[in-house]
Amino acid sequence: MNDWDIQKKLTRNDLGLTGSHQSGIAVPKKIVDMGYFPELDSKKKNPDCWIEIQTDHRAYYWRYIHYNNKLTTPGGTRDEFRLTHTKEFLRDYKASEKDILVIKLISKSSERSDYKMECWINKHEEKNTDYNDGLVIDLSWKINH
């Protein structure tokens, strides 16, 4: 579908190793605004959808959610996008801190239920994981053309 991917340098928090109450991987609004993920209705409280994640071995299903009570509820504090239900994938691929999660869009449609992405992990010890190439979005996300 496209010849670019997004990459996330995994942190201890992404891997659930910090004891934080937060769930999943935070997605920067800059990436959301690029249309890489399904469009969610921000007028609804905490809109979400499921994305099929394809790998060499099997499919996983991740929840993409906009925690948005700051926009929908008086006194709300959250306005963030996250990928949740990622633990099984990260465990199966033995992901560790500083590894690179690569996400490539395979197909999308106007229907939120028809998003498919391919994912894999580049181990941080491998030579082919030069994180300095591409467009850096923040300290842990980049776009690779």
Task: Summarize this structure as a short list of keywords or feature phrases.
9 strands; nine-stranded mixed sheet; 145 residues; 34% strand; globular; mainly beta; At1g16640 B3 domain
Concise summary:
The chain is mostly beta strands and 145 residues long.
Structural account:
The protein has 145 residues and is mainly beta. It has a single domain (5-144), classed as Beta Barrel (At1g16640 B3 domain). 10% of the residues lie in helices and 34% in strands. The chain has a 9-stranded mixed beta sheet with strand order 2-5-4-3-7-6-1-9-8. It is globular and about 50 Å long. The model has no long low-confidence stretch (mean pLDDT 86).
The structural class is mainly beta
**CATH H-tier superfamily:** DNA-binding pseudobarrel domain
Gap from first CA to last CA: 13 Å
Query: How much helicity do the residues have?
Result: 10-25%
DSSP strand (E) fraction? 25-35%
Main β-sheet description: 9 strands, mixed
Quantity of strands, as a count? 9
Taken from the alpha-carbon principal axes, the silhouette is globular
